[in-house]
Structures are given as C-alpha cells and as structure tokens.
Automatic annotation (TrEMBL):
Protein name, as recorded: Cupin domain-containing protein
CDD domains: cupin_YdbB-like (cd02226)
Record-linked InterPro entries: Cupin_2, PKS_Associated_Protein, RmlC-like_jellyroll, RmlC_Cupin_sf
Residue span(s) of domain Cupin type-2: 36-90
PANTHER family according to UniProt: 16.7 KDA PROTEIN IN WHIE LOCUS (PTHR36114)
Length: 119
C-alpha cells in the first residue's frame, strides 16, 4: 500500500493507445494511457468502461452523437454500446475496466492489445 504518482507513471509511456496497468481492485484494473487521433469503432458486450481525462480533451463518438470530455471530466460507456474515442491533440487518460476486457472488443486491428503491461 503506497501512493501512486500518476504523473510519474505517465512519463514512462511513449506509445499512443497502449494502456498500462497501475493498480487492480475488486476484479478491476486502473489503467493510464496517452492517446491521439482516432481509435477503432468497437464495443464491449459484457463490460462497462470508465474514461477519466487527466489532461486534454477527448471526443467520445457514438453512432448517434458525440460527447466532449474535458480535462477533469469522465464518461462511462455502458456495455454493448459501440463507441470510438477521438483526440485531436494528445490526451492523458485513466481507465477503469474489468481485468478480462478486450482492448478493441471483438474488432481486430493494429491497435488491438492482448496483454497489458504493469508499470
């Protein structure tokens, strides 16, 4: 049980769209990531996702609308809802997700990750 310096952990991340695990609790993983550009359209059939923006502004795109999520704000994407995060400039975010979640749902792309590094 020690404090986690999130900014120090973010300085270890060089790759975009490659979340890193910084903590685990109750079957959930707390991840941080740097993102820029567009992610792939995907959903998670059985898992909700929470995105908390630490730095910058992200657009969460849904098939019927777009939601702007600013620094210090969060959004929860319910299971089964197709979505695509977009960041015009580099965004730092924290995610709360179940440990078994698939990064891109059932979609396979060059951004798909099968294992998450712990930092």
């Amino acid at each position: 049980m020690e404090s986690i310096k999130i900014k120090d952990k973010l300085e270890l991340i060089n790759d975009l769209w490659k979340p890193k695990v910084i903590a685990e609790l109750n079957g959930q993983q707390v991840k941080i990531s740097k993102v820029k550009g567009e992610f792939v359209w995907h959903d998670h059939k059985d898992e909700d996702e929470l995105f908390y923006i630490l730095k910058g502004k992200m657009i969460m795109e849904f098939r019927d609308r777009k939601v702007e999520v600013n620094e210090g704000e969060m959004i929860v994407v319910p299971k089964g809802v197709e979505h695509r995060p977009i960041a015009e400039e580099e965004v730092w975010m924290m995610l709360f997700e179940p440990q078994n979640i698939k990064h891109t749902g059932d979609v396979k792309s060059e951004l798909t990750m099968d294992n998450y590094e712990k930092i």
